[in-house]
Amino acid sequence: MPDLESLRLLVLIADAGSIGAAATVLGVSQPAASKRIRYLERELGLALLERQARGSTLTDQGRTVTDWARNVLAATQTLLVGARAMQHSGAARLTTAASQTVAEYLFPHWLAALSRTDAHPSVALRVANSARVIELVRNHDVELGFIESPSVPRDLAGRTVATDRLVVVVAPSHPWSRRRTPVGATDLLDNRLVLREAGSGTRATLERVLPGAPQDYLELDSNAAVKVVVASGTGVAVLSALAVAGELADGRLVEVATSGLDLRRPLRAVWPRGRRLLGAAAEFLAII
């Protein structure tokens, strides 16, 4: 596996225009930077730079790899920001809980935006399904919750912070991957469904549009587990477009067109009704 610093160096070469300029930014010597790039080329089996007397430029392969490297570095930053929020420091000024989809694909970006402002309170995050998040808010275990359920309980106040849609996905080997007509609710009920657990917002959104309960299904408690099972060729899943964007882009999953299914949903912040949001909670919600 290529190390992150080598990928960062490659991106800097693309941005700064030369190995020397990139080495200066990283605080290393130009020979050391050149050696690192040569090692990266050996690891990947690709020529990333075209070396000439007047300097080095990215090859076509190098430009493509650089774009991929940017995605890897951005994902790493998301991981680090999210991990810091889940450390549950007692010094945190704002305690939050978020459903899996929100926590995995939106929360780290919100925290990064918060860190770029003058007002950047420390934030602690707990990850659970939407039903559990609602329970944590009701019990005052957290100040602010984020759910993906179709509705907000009457005893909680809510505000839409983003919108999402669910998509039907199958493995490339599944017959539906080559289907030319959209699928409907009956089609879903007639096939094996790989579902999120009861209490998840994804499950609740799907159940709202189905005319009955599925008879043939497999229930799993994470987006990742559902994706792995479906990609192996077992069944059909209905997941957030946010959660499957990567798998759709690289072909591990295929989106199936639908008809007569309204799979859009709001993603909401919730807090106890009658309580005014102040301080860090108000700041965070305003930034979102």
TrEMBL record:
Keywords: DNA-binding, Transcription, Transcription regulation. Residues 2-59 form the HTH lysR-type domain. InterPro entries: LysR_HTH_N (IPR000847), LysR_subst-bd (IPR005119), WH-like_DNA-bd_sf (IPR036388), WH_DNA-bd_sf (IPR036390). The keyword Nucleus does not apply. It comes from the Bacteria. Belongs to the LysR transcriptional regulatory family. This is LysR family transcriptional regulator.
